[in-house]
Amino acid sequence: GIQVEQSPPDLILQEGANSTLRCNFSDSVNNLQWFHQNPWGQLINLFYIPSGTKQNGRLSATTVATERYSLLYISSSQTTDSGVYFCAVVAGYGNKLVFGAGTILRVKS
Amino acid sequence: NAGVTQTPKFRILKIGQSMTLQCAQDMNHNYMYWYRQDPGMGLKLIYYSVGAGITDKGEVPNGYNVSRSTTEDFPLRLELAAPSQTSVYFCASSFGLAGPLGDEQFFGPGTRLTVL
To answer: What residues are paired with B78 via a beta bridge?
Structure first.
């Protein structure tokens, strides 16, 4: 099956800093989503982005489907950005999301 | 819209007990899914359904059963609970659209289950 690798596994930032999270996948995809899991365990949809670029406030994402990677940019980070960021993809037939292991982000004030 | 709702929020089971995790959605989505998340890991698909009366296995179906009698509800049944089923369980739903409009999945708040 498809493999999803996220990097870095762990990231510590000072408040106000910018960061880039990466998601590599081993096969072509029909669906790619970025999620933020907050410290209470809730999964929050950030982007649905199988290709192209999207922006939402301080966050933006780019997926280059032909090169099999996606990037999540966080600018001017805030302590509320802390949590785990997951990339998940659907490959081939069906709608089954395959998740990466996540990037743990800690933003210090 | 309430979105995707799950009950209960927390549950402790003894080994060998059974229980049903409830999931409902009010977005008129065709597709529904059950995932589990073990500590420090991403989510893994247990079962999914593409419509009422149709279900199929995901990556980790052993020890679980599902049914889908209505569009809105998708309960997950645990029979003979084992410590390996200690996890956080997430239900999700989507329209199930193919093509460029895509198929974004939306998740419920999760059920934290401990089997002792």
So the answer is: B19, B64
